[in-house]
Amino acid sequence: GKLKMTAKVVSQETLATDVYSLVLEAPEIASQAIAGQFVSVYTHDGSKMLPRPISLCGIDREAGTLRLVYRVVGFGTKEFSQLAAGDTVDILGPLGNGFMKSDKKAILIGGGIGIPPMLQLAKELDCEKSVVLGYRDEIFLNEEFEPYAQVYMSSEDGQHGVKGNVIDAIKEYGVDGAVIYACGPTPMLRGIKAYAMEKGIECQISMEEKMACGVGACLACVCKTKEIDEHSQVHNRRICKDGPVFYAEEVEL
Ligand code: FES
Q: Using a 6 Å cutoff on CB, does residue 211 contact ligand 1?
Protein backbone atom coordinates (compact mmCIF):
# COMPACT_ATOMS: atom_id res chain seq x y z
CA GLY A 1 0.00 0.00 0.00
CA LYS A 2 0.90 3.68 -0.17
CA LEU A 3 3.24 5.18 2.36
CA LYS A 4 4.53 8.58 3.33
CA MET A 5 8.26 8.90 3.68
CA THR A 6 11.13 11.32 3.71
CA ALA A 7 13.15 10.68 0.56
CA LYS A 8 16.75 11.66 0.00
CA VAL A 9 17.62 13.44 -3.23
CA VAL A 10 20.15 11.46 -5.26
CA SER A 11 20.46 13.92 -8.12
CA GLN A 12 18.69 16.60 -10.07
CA GLU A 13 19.33 17.88 -13.58
CA THR A 14 17.68 20.15 -16.13
CA LEU A 15 16.40 18.45 -19.29
CA ALA A 16 14.87 21.45 -21.07
CA THR A 17 13.58 24.91 -20.19
CA ASP A 18 11.67 24.47 -16.90
CA VAL A 19 11.81 20.66 -17.21
CA TYR A 20 13.70 18.85 -14.46
CA SER A 21 14.70 15.28 -13.70
CA LEU A 22 14.81 14.44 -9.99
CA VAL A 23 16.04 11.10 -8.65
CA LEU A 24 14.95 10.17 -5.13
CA GLU A 25 15.95 7.35 -2.84
CA ALA A 26 12.66 5.69 -1.89
CA PRO A 27 13.15 1.91 -1.84
CA GLU A 28 9.83 1.09 -0.13
CA ILE A 29 7.88 2.91 -2.84
CA ALA A 30 10.11 1.78 -5.73
CA SER A 31 9.64 -1.87 -4.74
CA GLN A 32 5.89 -1.75 -5.35
CA ALA A 33 5.30 1.01 -7.94
CA ILE A 34 4.34 0.39 -11.59
CA ALA A 35 4.26 2.53 -14.73
CA GLY A 36 1.44 5.07 -14.75
CA GLN A 37 1.40 5.56 -10.99
CA PHE A 38 2.52 8.79 -9.31
CA VAL A 39 3.75 10.17 -6.02
CA SER A 40 2.62 13.31 -4.24
CA VAL A 41 5.49 15.57 -3.27
CA TYR A 42 5.19 17.94 -0.32
CA THR A 43 6.54 21.48 -0.16
CA HIS A 44 8.57 22.59 2.85
CA ASP A 45 6.74 25.82 3.58
CA GLY A 46 4.63 24.38 6.37
CA SER A 47 1.46 26.24 5.43
CA LYS A 48 -1.62 24.47 4.12
CA MET A 49 -0.19 23.92 0.67
CA LEU A 50 -1.41 20.76 -0.95
CA PRO A 51 1.15 18.31 -2.24
CA ARG A 52 1.91 18.12 -5.95
CA PRO A 53 1.31 14.90 -7.86
CA ILE A 54 4.22 13.94 -10.12
CA SER A 55 4.20 10.82 -12.25
CA LEU A 56 6.96 8.25 -12.17
CA CYS A 57 9.32 8.49 -15.13
CA GLY A 58 11.57 5.79 -13.75
CA ILE A 59 11.32 3.07 -11.13
CA ASP A 60 14.57 1.32 -10.27
CA ARG A 61 13.74 -1.48 -7.87
CA GLU A 62 17.35 -2.63 -7.50
CA ALA A 63 18.73 0.81 -6.73
CA GLY A 64 15.62 1.65 -4.71
CA THR A 65 15.11 4.91 -6.55
CA LEU A 66 12.33 6.84 -8.26
CA ARG A 67 12.86 9.31 -11.08
CA LEU A 68 10.45 12.22 -11.44
CA VAL A 69 10.50 14.36 -14.57
CA TYR A 70 8.32 17.44 -14.17
CA ARG A 71 7.77 20.95 -15.43
CA VAL A 72 7.98 24.01 -13.20
CA VAL A 73 4.50 25.52 -13.31
CA GLY A 74 4.23 27.33 -10.00
CA PHE A 75 5.45 27.81 -6.47
CA GLY A 76 5.61 24.14 -5.44
CA THR A 77 7.40 22.81 -8.48
CA LYS A 78 9.76 25.81 -8.34
CA GLU A 79 10.72 24.71 -4.85
CA PHE A 80 11.32 21.13 -6.01
CA SER A 81 13.56 22.37 -8.82
CA GLN A 82 15.92 23.83 -6.22
CA LEU A 83 16.48 20.50 -4.47
CA ALA A 84 20.02 19.16 -4.72
CA ALA A 85 21.78 15.89 -3.90
CA GLY A 86 21.62 15.20 -0.17
CA ASP A 87 18.48 17.26 0.47
CA THR A 88 15.32 15.55 1.62
CA VAL A 89 11.70 15.85 0.57
CA ASP A 90 8.51 14.22 1.84
CA ILE A 91 6.60 12.07 -0.59
CA LEU A 92 3.52 9.87 -0.52
CA GLY A 93 3.07 6.92 -2.85
CA PRO A 94 2.73 4.97 -4.93
CA LEU A 95 -0.63 6.55 -5.80
CA GLY A 96 -3.27 5.82 -8.41
CA ASN A 97 -3.63 2.84 -10.69
CA GLY A 98 -1.09 2.15 -13.39
CA PHE A 99 -1.34 1.08 -17.01
CA MET A 100 -2.83 -2.37 -17.58
CA LYS A 101 -0.13 -4.09 -19.56
CA SER A 102 -0.83 -6.66 -22.24
CA ASP A 103 1.40 -8.30 -24.84
CA LYS A 104 -0.50 -6.83 -27.78
CA LYS A 105 1.48 -4.72 -30.24
CA ALA A 106 1.54 -1.33 -28.58
CA ILE A 107 1.66 2.33 -29.50
CA LEU A 108 2.90 4.49 -26.63
CA ILE A 109 2.00 8.14 -27.02
CA GLY A 110 3.25 10.99 -24.86
CA GLY A 111 2.60 14.69 -25.23
CA GLY A 112 4.76 17.32 -23.51
CA ILE A 113 5.04 16.68 -19.80
CA GLY A 114 2.90 13.56 -20.38
CA ILE A 115 5.98 11.92 -21.93
CA PRO A 116 7.81 10.92 -18.70
CA PRO A 117 5.45 8.12 -17.54
CA MET A 118 5.67 6.52 -20.99
CA LEU A 119 9.39 5.88 -20.50
CA GLN A 120 8.84 3.57 -17.53
CA LEU A 121 6.01 1.89 -19.45
CA ALA A 122 8.31 1.37 -22.45
CA LYS A 123 10.74 -0.43 -20.12
CA GLU A 124 8.05 -2.59 -18.54
CA LEU A 125 6.21 -3.64 -21.70
CA ASP A 126 7.65 -6.83 -23.07
CA CYS A 127 6.11 -6.72 -26.55
CA GLU A 128 6.44 -5.17 -29.98
CA LYS A 129 5.98 -1.42 -29.60
CA SER A 130 6.36 2.03 -31.12
CA VAL A 131 6.66 5.34 -29.32
CA VAL A 132 5.18 8.61 -30.56
CA LEU A 133 6.28 11.78 -28.77
CA GLY A 134 4.62 15.15 -29.27
CA TYR A 135 6.43 18.38 -28.46
CA ARG A 136 5.75 22.06 -28.77
CA ASP A 137 9.33 22.97 -29.70
CA GLU A 138 12.09 21.85 -27.31
CA ILE A 139 12.57 18.08 -27.15
CA PHE A 140 13.56 15.99 -24.10
CA LEU A 141 13.76 12.31 -23.08
CA ASN A 142 13.39 11.17 -26.72
CA GLU A 143 16.83 9.52 -26.84
CA GLU A 144 16.09 7.53 -23.71
CA PHE A 145 13.27 5.69 -25.48
CA GLU A 146 15.52 4.48 -28.30
CA PRO A 147 16.75 1.28 -26.61
CA TYR A 148 13.14 0.13 -26.17
CA ALA A 149 11.27 1.05 -29.33
CA GLN A 150 11.20 2.85 -32.64
CA VAL A 151 10.63 6.53 -31.78
CA TYR A 152 8.55 8.93 -33.88
CA MET A 153 8.13 12.62 -33.11
CA SER A 154 5.90 15.54 -33.87
CA SER A 155 6.44 19.18 -33.02
CA GLU A 156 4.31 22.25 -33.49
CA ASP A 157 7.03 24.10 -35.36
CA GLY A 158 8.10 21.08 -37.45
CA GLN A 159 11.71 21.26 -36.19
CA HIS A 160 11.50 17.70 -34.87
CA GLY A 161 9.63 14.95 -36.70
CA VAL A 162 6.32 15.76 -38.32
CA LYS A 163 4.94 19.30 -38.13
CA GLY A 164 1.72 18.93 -36.21
CA ASN A 165 0.53 16.63 -33.46
CA VAL A 166 0.96 12.98 -32.48
CA ILE A 167 -1.93 11.81 -34.68
CA ASP A 168 -0.30 13.52 -37.66
CA ALA A 169 2.89 11.58 -36.84
CA ILE A 170 1.01 8.26 -36.55
CA LYS A 171 -0.57 8.81 -39.97
CA GLU A 172 2.58 10.13 -41.64
CA TYR A 173 4.78 7.27 -40.44
CA GLY A 174 2.11 4.56 -40.65
CA VAL A 175 2.48 3.61 -36.99
CA ASP A 176 0.18 0.75 -36.06
CA GLY A 177 -0.69 -1.40 -33.09
CA ALA A 178 -3.52 -3.15 -31.25
CA VAL A 179 -3.39 -1.11 -28.08
CA ILE A 180 -2.65 2.56 -27.38
CA TYR A 181 -1.26 3.82 -24.08
CA ALA A 182 -1.24 7.62 -23.85
CA CYS A 183 -0.54 10.50 -21.53
CA GLY A 184 -0.67 14.20 -22.25
CA PRO A 185 -2.88 17.28 -22.35
CA THR A 186 -6.64 16.80 -22.64
CA PRO A 187 -7.01 18.03 -26.25
CA MET A 188 -4.39 15.47 -27.29
CA LEU A 189 -6.15 12.69 -25.39
CA ARG A 190 -9.43 13.67 -27.02
CA GLY A 191 -7.84 13.32 -30.45
CA ILE A 192 -6.29 9.98 -29.54
CA LYS A 193 -9.57 8.65 -28.19
CA ALA A 194 -11.34 9.59 -31.42
CA TYR A 195 -8.59 7.97 -33.48
CA ALA A 196 -8.65 4.77 -31.40
CA MET A 197 -12.43 4.48 -31.62
CA GLU A 198 -12.37 5.05 -35.37
CA LYS A 199 -9.74 2.31 -35.76
CA GLY A 200 -11.25 0.01 -33.14
CA ILE A 201 -8.03 -0.04 -31.11
CA GLU A 202 -7.99 -0.55 -27.34
CA CYS A 203 -6.94 2.71 -25.69
CA GLN A 204 -5.75 3.50 -22.19
CA ILE A 205 -5.15 7.12 -21.21
CA SER A 206 -3.55 8.72 -18.19
CA MET A 207 -5.41 11.89 -17.26
CA GLU A 208 -2.79 13.00 -14.76
CA GLU A 209 -2.63 16.47 -16.29
CA LYS A 210 -5.91 17.34 -14.58
CA MET A 211 -4.73 16.53 -11.08
CA ALA A 212 -3.85 19.27 -8.60
CA CYS A 213 -3.36 17.76 -5.12
CA GLY A 214 -3.24 14.08 -6.05
CA VAL A 215 -4.66 12.99 -2.71
CA GLY A 216 -8.41 13.41 -3.10
CA ALA A 217 -8.62 16.75 -1.31
CA CYS A 218 -9.16 19.45 -3.92
CA LEU A 219 -11.75 17.95 -6.32
CA ALA A 220 -10.00 19.67 -9.24
CA CYS A 221 -9.81 16.33 -10.98
CA VAL A 222 -13.45 15.22 -11.09
CA CYS A 223 -14.41 13.81 -14.48
CA LYS A 224 -17.56 12.35 -15.94
CA THR A 225 -17.68 8.70 -16.79
CA LYS A 226 -20.06 6.66 -18.88
CA GLU A 227 -21.31 4.81 -15.83
CA ILE A 228 -24.86 5.60 -14.84
CA ASP A 229 -25.82 4.76 -11.27
CA GLU A 230 -29.11 3.34 -9.98
CA HIS A 231 -30.63 6.85 -9.80
CA SER A 232 -29.89 7.50 -13.49
CA GLN A 233 -27.16 9.89 -12.44
CA VAL A 234 -23.89 10.12 -14.32
CA HIS A 235 -21.19 8.68 -12.13
CA ASN A 236 -18.37 11.15 -11.46
CA ARG A 237 -14.89 9.99 -10.66
CA ARG A 238 -11.82 11.56 -9.16
CA ILE A 239 -8.85 11.06 -11.44
CA CYS A 240 -6.41 10.92 -8.52
CA LYS A 241 -8.39 8.21 -6.71
CA ASP A 242 -9.97 6.16 -9.51
CA GLY A 243 -7.26 6.85 -12.14
CA PRO A 244 -5.16 8.45 -13.42
CA VAL A 245 -5.30 5.66 -16.02
CA PHE A 246 -8.69 4.91 -17.59
CA TYR A 247 -9.91 3.11 -20.66
CA ALA A 248 -10.63 6.00 -23.03
CA GLU A 249 -14.19 4.86 -23.72
CA GLU A 250 -15.03 5.01 -20.00
CA VAL A 251 -14.50 8.75 -19.58
CA GLU A 252 -15.76 11.96 -21.11
CA LEU A 253 -12.96 14.20 -22.29
FE1 FES B 1 -7.18 16.88 -5.86
FE2 FES B 1 -7.99 14.71 -7.21
S3 FES B 1 -6.33 15.99 -7.64
S4 FES B 1 -8.95 15.67 -5.54
A: yes
pLDDT tops 80 at residue 233: no
| CATH architecture of the domain covering 3-95 | Beta Barrel (2.40)
- Continuous segment of H or E residues that includes residue 87: none
Is the overall model pTM greater than 0.90, yes or no? yes
pLDDT digit string (tens) for 127-183?
Answer: 999 999 999 999 999 999 999 999 999 999 999 999 999 999 999 999 999 999 999
Query: Peptide bond preceding 117: is omega within 30 degrees of 0, i.e. cis?
Result: no
Question: Which atom of ligand 1 approaches the CA of 53 most closely?
Answer: 3
* pLDDT tens-digit readout, 185-226: 999 999 999 999 999 999 999 999 999 889 888 889 999 887
Ligand 1 nearest-atom number relative to CA 241: 2
Whether ligand 1 lies within 6 angstroms of the CB of 220 is answered as yes
240 touches ligand 1 (CB under 6 Å): yes
Q: Is the domain 106-250 a CATH 2.60.40.10 member? A: no
- Pocket lining: 95 vs ligand 1, CB cutoff 6 Å: no
Alpha-carbon distance 229 to 215, whole Å?
24
Location of each CATH 3.40.50.80 domain in the chain: 106-250
Residue among 238, 242, 246 whose CB has most ligand 1 atoms within 8 A, to mutate: 238
Say what angle helices 166-173 and 186-199 make with each other, to 10 degrees.
Answer: 40
CB 183, CB 206: distance < 8 Å? yes
